[in-house]
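sry for the spam today, last one i promise. struct tokens for design, 279 residues
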């Protein structure tokens, strides 16, 4: 049986190692560039989960919750309609919503009728899961089992058809996931926040999801840039945060589009009445 000299074996090993090292370094670099969003996440419970937070230092800030002096203050979700980012027509809607909430007349939003909530899904407190694939990220929401599809490293369509969650394209950048969304459909309950702030078909949203650690542990920081020349006087940014969810699986959820009451101001109006007998 022939034997390979020791020097030849050592030389071969060095050549092999030289060939493997760059590949390993590239893999590590690639893994570092793609954030780990695995697991189940949930919007922070507390004041910051009610809506978006301002980005420190920004002059244009998201609409904030009004502090109402009422024994029912916790149930009243009224937005500050004097925020200068609002064009007059949008301000009127936010003001009307605030006055309705203060009068304890709930302002119905899309999720009240099991409709997909568009951008407002970022304010839903129930668990969320990110499924990361080579060319796509899928975001699953426990709320009514809604799903968003983000296609990586692609351009927007020339004329995208408006849809509930719009057309989202994404990329990984600076250790985070960047999602660029247009063509979110407008309807009577299409809003951008908890205060019923409307939007037009010109809405353009950029979300940046970045895993970070703070004194309380892991969280995902979401920075949003929102632009809609039909609704807002200027582009504005906002922050939202996710923490690891206590629940590591989705609960079964069934949502049927219906109203349990047909009171004045409800989603579908008054109770239907038959004017003639059916027989």
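last one done:
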């Amino acid at each position: 049986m022939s034997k390979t000299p020791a020097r030849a074996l050592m030389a071969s090993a060095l050549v092999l190692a030289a060939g493997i090292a760059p590949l390993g370094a590239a893999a590590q670099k690639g893994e570092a560039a793609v954030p780990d969003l695995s697991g189940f996440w949930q919007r922070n419970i507390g004041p910051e989960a009610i809506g978006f937070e301002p980005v420190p230092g920004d002059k244009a800030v998201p609409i904030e919750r009004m502090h109402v002096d009422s024994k029912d203050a916790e149930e009243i979700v009224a937005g500050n309609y004097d925020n200068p980012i609002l064009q007059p027509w949008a301000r009127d809607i936010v003001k009307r919503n605030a006055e309705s909430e203060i009068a304890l007349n709930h302002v119905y939003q899309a999720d009240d009728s099991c409709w997909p909530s568009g951008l407002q899904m970022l304010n839903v407190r129930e668990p969320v899961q990110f499924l990361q694939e080579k060319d796509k990220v899928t975001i699953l929401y426990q709320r009514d089992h809604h799903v968003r599809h983000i296609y990586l490293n692609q351009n927007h369509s020339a004329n995208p058809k408006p849809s509930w969650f719009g057309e989202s394209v994404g990329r990984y950048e600076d250790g985070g996931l960047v999602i660029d969304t247009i063509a979110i459909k407008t309807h009577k309950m299409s809003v951008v926040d908890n205060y019923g702030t409307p939007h037009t078909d010109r809405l353009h949203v950029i979300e940046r999801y970045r895993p970070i650690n703070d004194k309380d542990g892991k969280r995902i920081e979401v920075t949003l840039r929102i632009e809609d020349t039909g609704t807002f006087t200027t582009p504005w940014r906002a922050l939202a945060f996710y923490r690891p969810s206590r629940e590591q699986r989705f609960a079964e959820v069934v949502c049927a589009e219906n109203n349990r009451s047909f009171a004045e101001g409800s989603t579908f109006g008054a109770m239907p009445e038959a004017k003639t007998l059916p027989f």
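The chain has one domain: 40-244. ok im logging off now
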